[in-house]
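lol forgot to send this yesterday, sorry. struct tokens for the thing we talked abt
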């Protein structure tokens, strides 16, 4: 099937494709090989509402599509790949939309099996420090004790410690120490 026909088939069914085992692999391949102006409609549709974004981000296959999009868009926006001004602008628009949805829903995603994978992808990013700091402030700092209760969110806390700015790392360590002290006192 030609790329144009494939993109036409996907158009209008982006979220359905992203959450399907076989179709999501095709989407990831397209995101890796097409230009942002060619696949931007897929990202914009997935991020068109909190509901559609969460449907995809909290899905076993959909979280992979979002991670792939975040990584490719970041490489384009921050000049890791050579792209035209139009491609960079398209990538910037798509990345901005994705990051808005990500930050709007970061607390819920942090506690979700698949959503936490998207959060971890953003935290690992070397270029998205403002987003990383926002996620840590909003979804990790005030919830350390609760986040330690499941493996998915615990991984978010661990990555936050590794990638946080020095100021946030100090705050996070203080919260972790406070949570430990609280557990030790309640155990006695």
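and heres what i got for the seq, position by position
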């Amino acid at each position: 099937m030609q790329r144009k026909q494939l993109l036409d088939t996907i158009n209008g069914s982006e979220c359905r494709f992203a959450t399907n085992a076989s179709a999501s692999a095709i989407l990831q391949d397209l995101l890796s090989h097409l230009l942002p102006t060619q696949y931007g409609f897929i990202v914009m549709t997935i991020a068109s509402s909190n509901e559609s974004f969460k449907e995809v981000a909290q899905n076993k296959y959909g979280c992979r599509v979002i991670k792939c999009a975040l990584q490719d868009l970041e490489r384009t926006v921050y000049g890791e790949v050579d792209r035209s001004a139009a491609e960079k602008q398209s990538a910037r628009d798509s990345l901005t939309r994705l990051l808005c949805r990500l930050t709007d829903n970061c607390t819920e995603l942090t506690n979700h099996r698949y959503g936490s994978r998207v959060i971890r992808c953003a935290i690992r990013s070397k270029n998205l420090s403002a987003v990383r700091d926002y996620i840590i402030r909003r979804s990790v700092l005030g919830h350390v004790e609760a986040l330690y209760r499941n493996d998915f969110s615990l991984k978010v806390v661990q990555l936050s410690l590794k990638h946080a700015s020095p100021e946030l790392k100090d705050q996070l360590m203080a919260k972790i120490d406070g949570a430990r002290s609280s557990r030790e006192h309640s155990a006695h």
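The two ends are 66 Å apart (CA to CA). anyway ping me if u want another try
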